[in-house]
Design brief:
It contains 33 helices and 33 strands. It is of the alpha/beta class. The two termini are 19 Å apart. The relative contact order is 0.10. The structure holds zinc ion (ZN) (2 copies). One zinc ion binds at residues 504, 506-507, 509, 547, 549-550, 552. One zinc ion (ZN) binds at residues 948, 950-951, 953, 967-968, 970-971.
């Protein structure tokens, strides 16, 4: 407040003002400061210390879903996930819960194996299985290091010393014991299932290993003669249809591009609501074809024109009919399936469940529901090299042939049996192996399954006992669990937990139970599951096993490993139960992941837990959406719209990224981009500077001896505390209900509008100019101290670095105790502020102050008008006169003139009645006036008196003191007493 016109021989009164003093920097300098703070937390063992201070019987366990260790980087979605988890855990910790957080990592699986394979010179076959596993382990562990560094940089507080890793030897040992327990309980069975198979590399292929390329295929139409009109299962057939179908022999016509799968046909599928026609198809006799496809089929059959329709029927009527296989003594049953369309073919789909997953699941469904007594078989006569084995019913002429060559042989066979209507070839996009670049086939192989039907109802019941956030998650997972088929648990890979089964070398009998698994687990515990590929069967069995069906004692090991979803799915037991000292009892309080995990981890965890203990493993499940760019588009490298969390942290800090997480409604997809970040950065700075103002202005204040009792605070002081308590309660509610986005709205509004633009603006004059130990000033400092002690704790879950930064610049002797014996070393140890209900004003008192704030708006409008007319410069050059127009006179009189002057930032405030106004115009020239909603008329007049050279207010008392002739009374006291 220096004045350029102050004569140099006068005292520089600026030095006598009490301007804020603090070392807390305006700029965060997050790139260097946040890592310093994180190092401090680590040195001080803040995570452990905070945990130890909590009551262990009062737990809240958020169980971490393990990210894959297929990369050492994290993307923005992972950052969102980890930050949300950290916000929950920090909040619960502050609320007094013992809330441990053990981070997890998923270390097995195809993405890791595939990445490692690509790096091996000479390809996979150049190394042994053991070497491959060692390389996978190394790769996973080095990625763990990278991810952990990133998670720590986000400010995530956790037991970093002892994370859980699914490739840990003890974890693997426990996992196979659990699997054996499920086998003992009868939940596991072996069966056939078609998988992608590459006959060149002789191995199963995962979806991710498939690439598409053009390929020339066959296109054939084939007749299946109806055998009987007696149905294989109960389904309607109208008398009319029955009569017309029984007149002459009738065939169903199918279309396929894989003649070699004809030998595996056991069924045909129609769509219940599609309309089918009975027609005379030239020399091929009476045939059934979908009405819509009749013209195409007619053309392929060499007919000049589309034949007349003799009869129409729906797919529903055709269900259950039985046809004869064209060249094998076997029935082919008409089923219905939703995947049947009339886009191509005949509307009747050839079903070979040994060679197609759609076929397989549809047939399994009918076997379970309609064909229980006489189920359809899965026939898979092609061996691992793609060659036809000598299997029952397979024509001799194809035995020993590669499947592609066999296509031609099957064409001959179909012709011989008068079943082939037409044959063509065409080129289309077809799945190929990424390894051999040759076409892949579906081939049914022996797999391990979990029979979900055996416990599906319990799982569905348990879903109802879980809290789903948002609530729509319940419907989602219910539908998925209700409709999921058996869980295929085996994978034909190397990098995974082996299925600990043994096969009798004499008779092939499979041996797997708890006892066998415990022998394997003993070895795994010491040497990890690498032991499985290192040793032969006897190393595990040690002569303790005899074949239960033939009495032999030599065995081979199972080659398949388990689905990685099983690894992470059993962490409720392999982690929570195994570490119950640290993690308490099941069920966990919360699982929190992206919404895609309804299909994945939430489900695999639920199913395994229900098998083991008939219970869901969690009390609540929270899901979040995906991160899109600012325009709602998917982030992708090619679009150039990817936000890298590390770049954000480097440029703006982890707290800004965390503030973003607490600003978006995570229940749907969320958006992020440069503009959002810029805005967030500004709000972050505003919040920071609000705190800086408070810490700077309580300099010299001793909270232990100078705190002004609540009753002695001014109405405005109490009003600000009142607002703090309302905001605090709303924040508590928001955190309790996992509505974190309210944090941003509430805190931003309180800091920027209520504190910065209102309260701070108004109290600056008293803080800077009043005598140091003046009561009013101490009252304001009391309020600032209390609000800072609330805000510095309320921001911990979202902006822990800023909270710690404030704490580290807070003079030791001023630090609040937070109900503890001494101020904590780190603010992270501090509890959540317990301000519910305290500081609340009576409703009428709050209302009265709010009316005054509305009046302030009117005053500001009047002052603005005077300023734009150049009648005044600063508002302090003005006095305000208020004329109540309605009955508000008494209300105004309740408030002191001091409060009004403060609030309006003017040099004087007076109240005038109707009759005074005339006089007013005479004595004090009115420079502006403004009417506020019929309630008040506000007059701006030039302040009387002279300008005080210290506080710049215009006062009559300026000039009254000979020792300081340029000071007002207040400033004179301030200068002469302090
Ligand atoms: Zn045997
Ligand atoms: Zn003054």
């Amino acid at each position: 407040m220096s004045d350029a016109n102050t004569p140099s021989n006068e005292i520089n009164y600026k030095e006598t003002l009490h301007l804020p003093i603090t070392t807390f920097p305006m700029r965060a300098g997050a790139a260097t400061r946040e890592p310093e703070i994180q190092a401090f937390w680590q040195d001080q063992k803040v995570y452990q210390k905070t945990l130890d201070a909590r009551d262990k019987s009062h737990t809240f366990v958020l169980h971490d879903g393990p990210p894959y260790l297929s990369s050492d980087k994290i993307h923005i979605g992972t950052a969102l996930n980890k930050i949300l988890k950290d916000v929950v855990v920090r909040y619960k910790t502050q609320r007094g819960y013992y809330a441990p957080y053990v981070p997890g990592y998923d270390g097995h699986g195809l993405p890791i194996e595939a990445a490692v394979e690509k790096k091996i010179k000479g390809g996979r076959k150049a190394v042994s299985e053991l070497e491959l596993r060692e390389k996978c382990r190394e790769f996973a562990m080095s990625n763990l290091e990278g991810q952990e560094t990133n998670f720590k940089r986000l400010g995530v507080q956790a037991n970093w010393e002892a994370p859980y890793i699914t490739i840990d030897a003890k974890f693997e040992a426990r996992q196979i014991e659990l699997f054996a327990e499920m086998v003992d309980k009868g939940f596991v069975f072996k069966g056939l299932k078609p998988v992608y198979w590459c006959p060149i590399s002789e191995s199963a292929m995962a979806e991710a290993e498939i690439e598409y390329a053009d390929h020339e295929s066959h296109s054939i139409y084939v007749k299946f003669p109806l055998k009987t009109l007696d149905k294989a299962f109960d389904a309607p057939l109208s008398d009319e249809t029955r009569a017309i179908l029984s007149e002459y022999p009738v065939s169903l016509v199918i279309w396929t591009t894989t003649p070699w799968t004809m030998a595996s046909n056991v069924a045909m599928a129609v769509h219940e609501r599609v309309e089918y026609a009975l027609v005379e198809l030239g020399e091929h006799g009476r045939c059934i074809i979908a009405v819509d496809l009749l013209p195409t089929v007619a053309k392929h059959s060499g007919l000049e024109k589309t034949p007349d329709i003799l009869h129409r029927m729906t797919g529903k009527e055709l269900r259950g009919l039985e046809a004869r296989h064209p060249f094998i003594d076997r029935r082919s049953v008409v089923l219905s399936a939703d995947f049947v369309t009339t886009d191509a073919g005949t509307g009747i789909v050839h079903m070979a469940p040994g060679h197609g997953p759609d076929d397989f699941f549809a047939v399994q469904g009918f076997n379970r529901s309609e064909l229980k007594e006489n189920p359809l078989p899965v026939i898979s006569p092609v061996n691992g090299r793609g060659i036809f084995d000598d299997v029952d019913g397979i024509p001799e002429s194809v035995v020993g042939q590669f499947y592609e060559k066999a296509n031609w042989t099957f064409l001959e066979i179909l012709k011989e049996h008068n079943a082939l209507i037409s044959h063509n070839t065409f080129t289309h996009s077809f799945p190929h192996s990424w390894r051999s670049h040759s076409p892949v086939i579906y081939r049914a192989t022996d797999q391990w399954f979990i029979n979900v039907d055996a416990f599906r109802q319990t799982a569905l019941d348990e879903i109802k006992n879980v809290q789903w956030v948002p609530a729509r998650g319940e419907t989602r997972i219910t539908t998925m669990v209700a409709n999921r088929p058996e869980w295929c648990i085996s994978r034909q890979r190397t990098w995974g937990v082996p299925i600990p089964a043994f096969y009798c070398e004499n008779c092939g009998e499979v041996h797997l139970d708890s006892k066998v698994a415990s022998w394997v687990a003993d070895v795994f515990r010491e040497e990890s599951s690498d032991a499985w590929v290192k040793y032969d069967a006897d190393h595990f069995l040690k002569g303790r096993l005899t074949c239960k069906s033939c009495g032999h004692t030599s065995f081979t090991k199972e080659k398949d490993v388990m689905d990685v979803w099983f690894d992470s799915g059993v962490t409720h037991t392999t982690v929570i139960e195994e570490r119950s000292d640290e993690l308490g009892n099941l069920p966990a309080d919360l699982y929190l992941e992206g919404s895609d995990q309804h299909r994945g981890w939430f489900q695999s965890s639920l199913l395994t837990s229900v098998m083991l203990r008939n219970k869901a493993p969690y009390k609540a499940v929270l899901t979040h959406g995906f991160v899109l760019d600012e325009n709602g588009r998917k982030m992708s490298k090619s679009q150039g719209n990817v936000v890298d969390p590390n770049t954000v942290m480097r440029e703006l800090g982890a707290d800004v990224l965390r503030l973003w997480v607490a600003s978006v409604d995570y229940t749907s997809d969320v958006r992020l981009g440069a503009n959002t970040l810029k805005q967030l950065g500004e709000i972050y700075r505003k919040i920071r500077n609000t705190c800086r103002f408070m810490i700077g202005n309580i300099a010299g204040f001793d909270p232990h001896t100078q705190t002004v009792p609540y009753e002695q605070l001014s109405t405005l002081d109490r009003y600000v505390l009142h607002r703090m308590s309302i905001v605090g309660e709303a924040l508590t509610d928001a955190f309790e209900n996992y509505e974190f986005h309210k944090f941003y709205q509430l805190l931003q509004n309180f800091c920027v509008v209520e504190l910065s633009s209102l309260y701070f603006d108004v109290v600056k004059d008293v803080l800077y100019c009043n005598p140091k130990n003046d009561h009013k000033r101490l009252a304001i400092q009391t309020v600032l101290h209390q609000i800072l002690s609330v805000i510095s704790r309320i921001i911990i879950p979202v902006m822990p670095h800023m909270a710690e930064d404030i704490w580290s610049h807070w003079p030791e002797e001023q630090k609040p105790l937070f109900g503890l014996a001494a101020p904590p070393t780190s603010i992270i140890e501090a509890p959540w502020p317990d301000i519910d209900g305290c500081w609340r004003m009576l409703p009428e008192e709050a209302k009265s102050l709010e009316a005054l704030l509305a009046l302030r708006e009117g005053v500001n409008a009047a002052l603005e008008q005077a300023r734009s007319n150049d009648d005044i410069g600063s508002s302090l050059e003005a006095s305000i006169l208020i004329q109540p127009l309605s009955s508000s006179w008494n209300f105004l009189k309740q408030h002191s003139v001091d409060l009004l002057e403060m609030l309006f930032l003017v040099s004087g405030v007076g109240l005038v009645q109707g009759q005074d106004v005339q006089q007013l115009y005479g004595e004090h020239p009115v420079v502006a006036e403004h009417e506020l909603e019929g309630e008040y008329r506000i007059y701006v007049v030039k302040a009387s008196g002279d300008k005080c050279q210290r506080c710049w207010q215009y006062k009559e008392t300026v000039g009254a003191y000979h020792d300081h002739p340029s000071l007002c009374m207040r400033c004179h006291t301030a200068v002469t007493t302090s």
